[in-house]
## 1
Amino acid sequence: DAALVALGSSEADALLRSLTSREILVQQDQSRFPGTKEYLFKHALVRDVAYDSLDRAHREELHALAGRWLSTLGEDAATVAGHLDLGGQSTLASHYWEIAAERALTANALADALTMAERALAFAETSTTGFRRASYLDEAFHRLDPRSADRESAVSAMEDYAYDETTRVLAEGARARFDDARGGGPEVNERLARVRDAAARLGRSDEVARCSAALASRAAFRGDFAVAEAEAKRLLDLSLHEVHGARVDAYQTLAIIRQAKGAVSLALDARRSAVQAARAASLKEREAILTTNLGFALSSVGARVEAREALQSGFVLAETIGSPAAVRHAQMNLLGWTSLYGNDRRLDAHLAETRAEADAVAASQWAAPDRSNLGVIFYRGAELLRSNSDVALERARTLLRMAVESYRNLGHLDVLPVALGMWAEAERLCRRVEEARTVAAEAATLLSSGAPSLLNEAPVFLTLFKCCNDLGDEDGALFATRERARVA
């Protein structure tokens, strides 16, 4: 009833009584707004016809009045913004879209946050509001899919709206992390470190944590454990000052380091701590990714059932929050499970599209160079090694070679040796034994010289042994046998 008055009705009470007596409206027992009476249309069709009967100008006027009235009652910001937008009040609506976007990010409604932040940014009137809204948009993209080409619009907007030293540093950090997500080269390390140090001088601990997390992952992947551990310590120190999500990245980095060093039990503890930290911080997309990482780690130690349960749990959470990046990461780890244990009908529905996309990559000979995408290619290739089909084995050979080349170019040394070993096995199964021995020998040499390995090293030496044995290379076979016993 109060709404009708706000929208200009001078006879609201009489009108409502009349419509109620004719059973067009039904009065509710309670109203969501204190001190008011609430009514519903008995039939949605009547409501829709009434709405459509309004001419455009009248409809806009009433939406604008409704939005302003609802805003005085503390209604949800997205509802207010929607009315104001329909009322032609887009600039005022953008203020409420910004509030709604921030709340959606907190609630892990990432797709909604993206739409709301885009709408808010479109009507920014100052550099301050423009930069803030662009940063919300970048965060939404980052949590949905950090490598997305569409994220470029958010990063560019941050750069365009930057208005002082702090915002310029934040924009530079966003650009560096975007390039990192899209497979940027070694120069990204320098840029991230420069932004991290500048942010520290400016007292922006949140930006320090973001850059430090990216640097930690990059260092861990290339086997530079001293740098990775230093960044992990920095993140743990920042977490004591309640920097959002810092503890999550610290534990994830420590998990990679410990697993690559062979401290499997400690690595599992760190992965579980990372999942718990993400849950405590209400970072659902991180929780999904880290849960599937835990499943991957459990797979590598033979905990087949527990691993599958963790993988499925992480996949379901990723789908629930609608994060393509988390879903793709889960699919990568699911493929890792099937490459070890074979097909499982309960997982096939999750992997059909992913397998098809990976197989298409083998034909096109090109793949996006981000970690998850390369992991899908690698594990699909490893999975195909189980096939007796010459076509499938050739596809496996192509995929594994592509994975090796990309891992080498990106400096992902933690997976390079075993990827080389898998490629060698594909060459051997395709009856290219000389080529297989060359590749397997490179992998074995890396491992024997102390190269880090996130994956099980034993298959590398088994493949080398088979190749040497087939070629009559007794010394090589003996070396492979000795090294396999050492890593076992």
Note: Residues 390-410 form the longest helix (21 residues).
## 2
Amino acid sequence: FMADHANMIVSHQLDCDQNYIYFDALYANYPLVHNSARYRHLGYFYPESDVVAGAEAVLTAWREHDRNLKDYGHAVTRAVADLSPLARVN
């Protein structure tokens, strides 16, 4: 469904900083627009319930995602590696 019908994932959470759908979206290289402070370094973050910042994040993702896909993928790879049960710190 996603490959045929979606270009972006927007996830707005209230009091839920960790949502595993983030990693599915990031791993598949979809632009993820979200408000999770825990993962502010991944995807396209906007704070809390700031609708204007969220709209700006959507526009940024739409304009820049394909151009920055290589860097986006590197950030995701590092983040997923940090969460791996095989990571030394874990």
Note: The chain has a mean pLDDT of 91.
## 3
Amino acid sequence: MTETNWREVAVLALFWLVYFAMHSVLASLHVKRWVALRYPARMPIYRLGFNMLALIMLLPILWLMLRHPGPMLWSWQGPGAWLANGLAVAAVLAFIMSLKHYDAQEFIGWRQWTSHTRRVEDQEGFHLSPFHRHVRHPWYFFSLILIWTRDMSAAMLISGVMMTIYFIIGSRLEETKLLIYHGEVYRTYMKRVPGLLPLPWKSLTAKEAAALVKAAERHPARKHDSESVN
């Protein structure tokens, strides 16, 4: 790679770093509580605004990747291409199938806005889809498949590395909140099911998953637990 290529890769990495830092900060309970305390009337729009901002902030990164892709490092050929594309299609189909197990309006933030919800905590209760029985963060897992089954230019490689690192760090930050929301039930779930990559010997049966969900309903995390985060 030329000096220009390295400079473009460095700029792209910096953009990703800023994006992930802002995404994590704005998703944190600290910032949400600060907004709830200072601007309570704006809390119903917070989740929706957060998602819109996340999409807008992706645009300059995508522009950089298209404008300065850098040299092609490798591309899948022959049987490898069939395998890579097959896995990518399977990941997309699995993602689409998983949507029915999520409250899309709550995830987007539309429900909070229309119902004028001012709570800091997520509204959706503890539940386990069929995918969650095998991996705690199925969307991250599907995304990793899509990332690493693509042909790799320099821009795509640095983006893939940055996204993978963020999935690792971001999943842990997210689970800090989930432990607050769901308490010991989620801690048990973490011990039984891997975070990002499914492992054949670590999963829940449908019966075990249902038992965990019922336990969460019987023993919800205490309200003041959600106030104990520094």
Note: Residues 115 and 158 are 41 Å apart (CA to CA).
